[in-house]
Amino acid sequence: MADTKEAEAPPPCTLVIFGATGDLTKRLLLPALRNLRRDGLLPDQFKLVGIASRDIGDDGFREHLRKAMTEFKAGNGDADIDWFLQRAHYLSGKFEDPKTFAAVAKHVDGNALFYLATPPSEFSIIVKQLGKAGLVEEGQDRWRRVIIEKPFGHDLPSAVALNKEILQVLQESQIFRIDHYLGKQTVQNIMVFRFANGFVEPLWGRDHIDHVQITVAETVGVETRGRFYDSTGALRDMVPNHIFQLVSLIAMEPPARFDAEALRSEKAKVLDAVQRFTPYSARGNVVRAQYAAGTVGGKPVAAYRDSPNVPKDSRTETYVALKLMIDNWRWAGVPFYVRTGKSLSARKTDINIRFKQAPFTLFRDTPVDRLPPNDLTIRIQPDEGVSLRFGVKVPEPQMRIDGVDLTFNYADAFKMLPSTGYETLIYDCMVGDATLFQRADNIEAGWRIVQPILDVWAADRTSILPGYAAGSSGPSEADALLSRDGRSWRRIVPAEK
Ligand code: BG6
């Protein structure tokens, strides 16, 4: 993982974006490229080649870039737009057509990074065609790398098949499977928090931790993504990828070195140790639900089923909560409760570590009736930081204890330049650092855990799908998942300003 602050510009290279006029390019890749330029982290000999189906030509593409870069930015005013326009080229063509790739070959010389920002159904054919056109052959003086967006597969068999197909064309070292959660500074900070602070490790495991809660709550609904989302759902969209990244970073053993292989091996071991769901345990330990009409942030929100391109009888879940158990020595008996959903009461991603309670003995004969919980909360977004909750004596003659927070806020401690999270990932790929990318086995391990759940759901077309009002904190069934263990979810409320 590169330190982009101190880092140097990567070697000269061409970035070829498949899906260059799409949403991802517009909203995230272009702003990220501009931030890299802002920080001096793009080579002067940089070339951007856009490919998509529309025939807009170089000029049309440059116009598109100008508009997109003006509308979507994470930082710079209008600086540098011309720098990119001078280096931009466009090709239109079908991905099934070898002529498209013969045209690409004319633009590519030396190092090249192919970014697959297309629908997942195109990944395999693009990689095959790149191979046939000789575009991914590396040499002494040139590297060729491919970034593959999520979702990587639709289930375990399709992920395995996709890995097999692309590995027939590419070496594992050329493949950069992206999970943009790993581009977030606060996600990378999980490793630093755990492994750069001596006091953490002795507490990190079943002797001291009662349970872990991971929440990825969104206020956005399905918006205009109905077609994609309805065949995907919350489980596939968020769990085997983003949420399992968080689980792995929290639960993994310290890697022997800070390098891609060591880190990815430790992550793979954690997912491998997650207790496999049976059809029975999947029914008991997984809750799915779909949002009904409601109000989010004061604005009315239509029911999921009334969103564009969503069938009126859709059974796709927009919320999922799971109880996971990790069967290894560190975590045996410590539940990991995870939940994610759309159209919830607040946007909040955090990880809460609940420590075991101190013995109550000392306070038995005092007015204290209970001890406040000790919670360590790693706040991923939107308010980024770490908090520790512990008990203090209330300053009064009587013995009373209250819970207070010791809080670190990234924004107070550091000047954070605006970023999309893609900056580090694109840069790392250009310098060949795969630490923050997924290896084939990491991807498959994630799907292996959720596949039994997908199977149970696919077989069940009749049970009542729980609902929750848009703007609420989810279905009551998810509350029951914890209350039967004598626990409860943390409230999903906006951060206090
Ligand atoms: C994407 C999902 O991968 O992650 C979206 O497809 C989701 O549905 C998004 O909204 C969440 O990302 P972030 O960075 O906003 O937490």
Overview of the molecule:
By secondary structure, the protein is α/β, with parallel strands linked by helices. It has 2 domains: 137 residues, NAD(P)-binding Rossmann-like Domain (Rossmann fold); 302 residues, 2-Layer Sandwich (Dihydrodipicolinate Reductase, domain 2), CATH 3.30.360. Helices cover 34% and strands 21% of the residues. The chain is built from 15 helices and 17 strands. The protein has a 9-stranded mixed beta sheet, with helices on both faces. Strands 3-2-1-4-5-6 form a 6-stranded parallel beta sheet. Strands 9-10 form a two-stranded antiparallel sheet. Strand 9 and strand 10 form a beta hairpin. Helix 6 runs antiparallel to helix 14, helix 9 packs across helix 10 and helix 10 packs parallel to helix 14. The protein is globular. The mean pLDDT is 95. The structure holds 6-O-phosphono-beta-D-glucopyranose (BG6).
List the helices and strands and how they pair.
Layout: E1 13-18, H1 23-38, E2 46-52, H2 57-71, H3 81-86, E3 88-92, H4 98-107, E4 112-116, H5 123-132, E5 144-148, H6 156-169, E6 175-177, H7 185-195, E7 209-217, H8 226-230, H9 233-251, H10 260-273, H11 279-285, E8 286-292, E9 294-296, E10 299-301, E11 319-325, E12 335-341, E13 348-355, E14 375-381, E15 385-393, E16 401-409, H12 410-413, H13 422-431, H14 440-459, E17 467-469, H15 476-483
Parallel strand pairs: 1-2, 1-4, 2-3, 4-5, 5-6, 7-12, 8-17
Antiparallel strand pairs: 7-13, 8-11, 9-10, 11-12, 13-14, 14-15, 15-16
Helix pairs in contact: 1-13, 5-6, 6-14, 9-10, 9-14, 10-14
This protein binds 6-O-phosphono-beta-D-glucopyranose.
6-O-phosphono-beta-D-glucopyranose is lined by residues 150, 218, 237, 349.
